[in-house]
Write a structure and sequence with these properties.
496 residues, 9-stranded mixed β-sheet
Amino acid sequence: MNKKTEKISDAIGQLDEKIVTAADEKRSINAGRKTVRGKFAKKIWIPAVSAAACAGILCGAALMGGNNSPGLVPVLVETLAEAKYPEAAHYPDESLFNGDYGEAWNNMYEPWSQQRMERHEAYRTLEAGSLGEFYKNTCETFLTDGNEKNRVYSPVNVYMALSMLAEITDGESRAQILELAGAESIEALRQQAGNIWKANYRNDGATTSVLANSIWLDSAAEFNSETLNRLAEEYFASAYRGDLASENTLKALRDWLNKQTDGLLEDAVNGIELPPQTVMALCSTICFHAKWDQEFNPEKNDIKVFHGSEGDVETEFMNNTQEYGPYYWGKDYGAVSLRFADGGRMWLILPDEGKTVEDLLRDGEYMDMVCGSNEWENYKTLIVNCSVPKFDVSSDIDLTKGLMELGVRDVFDSYRSDFTPLSEQAEGLAVGQAEHAARVVIDEKGCTGVAFTVMAAAGAAMPPEEEIDFVLDRPFLFVVTSDAYQPLFVGTVYVP
């Protein structure tokens, strides 16, 4: 065992091959089911969750604070491996030191600064081009349907979920995922996903950004321990085993999801059902929470009319003035960004008159702006009077049709799918459901949200004014980015 494998194994725990391989017929099945041998008679159910839950590839994310350790699973299932995240250095709060930046300050600041540098190094190794195309294409697919309804989607979380799905597939099934992700090989995709994880992992008391994964295995089926070990080592994926047809195992899975998403998507989690033929479930979560760098003063809130998709509605707006706020623009839109206290932003993107949110999503230029670090040229420092409605936006998205339109087809077809890395006897397996649920809330203090599995200057003139009123009183687009310039959430607001 090399040093890297040895270190990760110590952190995550070895998967016992005897536990993961064939279930003994003596151990099995209270409900009269027979132990599965040879070919699987079931479909695989693969959720990729991140803040809430749905059946299928539960792709999700959570903008929320709290305890984000992997979480304890009740003694209803067997724990094969428990992920342990890297220990995060605590944010050095200057107010605690009263201007004394001596040894005590250095002892706190240096390890925190070192971890920040490591995150930025991971960010610099990302293949921005391929990621940008994935983010643009999937946002357009999952956020445009012509219905003008509020939607939220986590691109980073779906990318992580699909990366895990690629690990347990092969042949054309894997090739289709690689093409969508813009990766030349599974090794390249694995490295990219790992760098996304490292670039976005924070739990330092100032910002919470934790990506968690788990694998749920049916006790009556055989699985490849090498593949499961890889998921544990590369994705910090905890592994659990139980009767996936039982209420006990379903409760344990729901408890895990609620733990990871701070209960913010409890209704969606409680709506999860595992179909009778489920063999395995993958859950992937992201939890993010941050405060504004410049909080809104509640006393400045007022009531304005929002011209929504369902007519005019009076709603509460938050107001502030950014004395040196950069105002951005691109093809058919203007934008401002609300900074979080220690890195990352929420971008508020307003289509020009005569243009729609879906026009912006189809063009995709906005993604170059929000992911472009400091490279976006079309901005001007102005006095920005920002007026944004308080909103609590949530949605449920069935990913199946969209993924098939994007070229990921074979995993949904039991006759064409290839899950041999999961099991040598995986004939007949297919993804039965793939859904995404998400929720984002903003208030005077910051941004909170949950979800599971989710711009170059052409055609617009530079604003001539030294002061601009940026009033989001009609449908708009928002993007929540981490300090690694990755889109954790993208959403549309038609009705606040």
